[in-house]
C-alpha cells in the first residue's frame, strides 16, 4: 500500500510535461464520491477506502484531507493548517492535492466569487 503523501513518481521523459490538474486558491476540494476516509484502529492511522483498495495515510495527509469538505478553498485549507502546525508550505499542499486529483480521489468545486 502506498501513502498518498508519498506517492512514487514515474520517471518523466525529457521535454514539455503535461500540466498538473489546475489548483488555485479559489477551488474547493473534496473527497470523490467513491472515496471514504476513516480511522483504522488496527493500524492506528487514517485510511482512504476506495473500491477494492485501501490507502494508509501518513504524515499530514489526513490533516489535509479532513479539511477537504467542498466548502473550504485551498487557501483556507492552507491557512487552517498553518494555525495548527505553524508553517505549512502551500506548494506541498498543492502538490499533494494535485496528485490526488490526478488519481480521481479528490474532486474540485469551481472557483469562488467575491460579492
TrEMBL record:
Q: Does the keyword RNA-binding apply?
A: no
The portions of this protein that span the membrane are none
- Domain of life per record: Bacteria
List, alphabetically, the Gene3D superfamilies matched: Coenzyme PQQ synthesis protein D (PqqD) (1.10.10.1150)
Pfam families the UniProt entry points to? PqqD (PF05402)
| Cited InterPro entries | PQQD, PqqD_bac, PqqD_sf
Write out the biased-composition intervals (Pro residues).
10-21
Keyword vocabulary terms for this entry: PQQ biosynthesis
The annotated pathway is: Cofactor biosynthesis; pyrroloquinoline quinone biosynthesis
**Subunit structure of this chain's protein:** Monomer. Interacts with PqqE.
Q: Which protein are we looking at?
A: Pyrroloquinoline quinone biosynthesis peptide chaperone PqqD
Q: Which organism is it from?
A: Pseudonocardia xishanensis
Question: Quick one: which gene encodes this?
Answer: pqqD
